[in-house]
């Protein structure tokens, strides 16, 4: 176990949101902004900002870390950029009326195409397709859930096509 792995999570937390240079085994060096440090393996997750707002994520495994040098403190803007890297994109907010219309339109379309669909749950907000797939609000392909990957993929493709025709 190396010195880096012996540190406590509170010690590692002091590196978060800072630009660092990590010296690793075999004379490898990595630079980037520390997103987090895994408390179990002591692995460092680094983010590097590329052109056109793309981000490169690197993981330096804890056992390979020999030295970590802080190069730069992160300002509030950088902390905000780092915190948004893994945050889901903001989706469109739908009113209850819009959600009800989307659900009913999708249900009608599925039934028209001879796909068995029922409403499920106390409020009937979830659609259930053939008893093996559920579709939650706002009723897009990303909200489909099923343990059967083939059915999941096909229904997602159908819904994607349906939504594209609606626009």
Question: Can you walk me through this structure?
Answer:
The protein has 167 residues and is an alpha+beta fold. Helices cover 31% and strands 30% of the residues. The chain is built from 5 helices and 9 strands, in the order H-H-E-E-E-E-E-H-H-E-E-E-E-H. The protein has a 5-stranded antiparallel β-sheet. A 4-stranded antiparallel β-sheet has the order 6-7-8-9, with helices on one face. Strand 8 and strand 9 form a beta hairpin. The chain is elongated, with a radius of gyration of 23 Å. The N and C termini lie far apart (58 Å). The model has no long low-confidence stretch (mean pLDDT 92).
Summarize the structure.
The protein is an alpha+beta fold.
Relevant terms:
elongated, single chain, 5 helices, alpha+beta, 31% helix, five-stranded antiparallel β-sheet, four-stranded antiparallel β-sheet, 167 residues
Break the fold down into its secondary structure elements and pairings:
Blueprint lengths: L2 H4 L2 H5 L4 E7 L4 E9 L6 E6 L5 E6 L4 E9 L2 H8 L12 H17 L4 E4 L5 E4 L3 E3 L8 E2 L3 H18 L1
Antiparallel strand pairs: 1-2, 1-5, 2-3, 3-4, 6-7, 7-8, 8-9
Low-confidence stretches: none
Largest sheet: 5 strands, antiparallel
The helix content, as a percent range, equals 25-40%
Overall pLDDT confidence: 92
Q: Report the total helices.
A: 5
> Could you tell me the strand content as a percent range?
25-35%
Tell me the strand order in the biggest sheet.
4-3-2-1-5
Radius of gyration based on Cα positions: 23 Å
Shape: elongated
Q: What is the number of strand segments?
A: 9
The N- and C-terminal alpha carbons lie at a distance of 58 Å
Order of helices and strands: HHEEEEEHHEEEEH
């Amino acid at each position: 176990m190396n010195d880096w792995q012996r540190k406590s999570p509170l010690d590692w937390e002091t590196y978060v949101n800072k630009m660092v240079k990590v010296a690793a085994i075999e004379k490898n060096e990595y630079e980037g902004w520390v997103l987090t440090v895994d408390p179990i393996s002591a692995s460092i997750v680094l983010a590097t900002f590329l052109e056109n707002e793309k981000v490169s994520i690197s993981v330096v495994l804890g056992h390979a870390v020999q030295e970590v040098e802080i190069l730069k403190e992160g300002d509030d803007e950088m902390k905000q950029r780092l915190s948004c890297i893994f945050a889901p994109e903001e989706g469109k907010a739908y009113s209850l009326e819009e959600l009800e219309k989307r659900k009913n339109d999708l249900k009608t379309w599925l039934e028209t195409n001879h796909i068995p669909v029922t409403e499920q749950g106390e409020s009937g907000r979830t659609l259930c397709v053939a008893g093996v797939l559920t579709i939650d609000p706002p009723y897009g392909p990303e909200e489909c859930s099923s343990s059967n990957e083939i059915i999941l993929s096909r229904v997602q493709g159908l819904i994607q096509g349906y939504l594209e025709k609606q626009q």
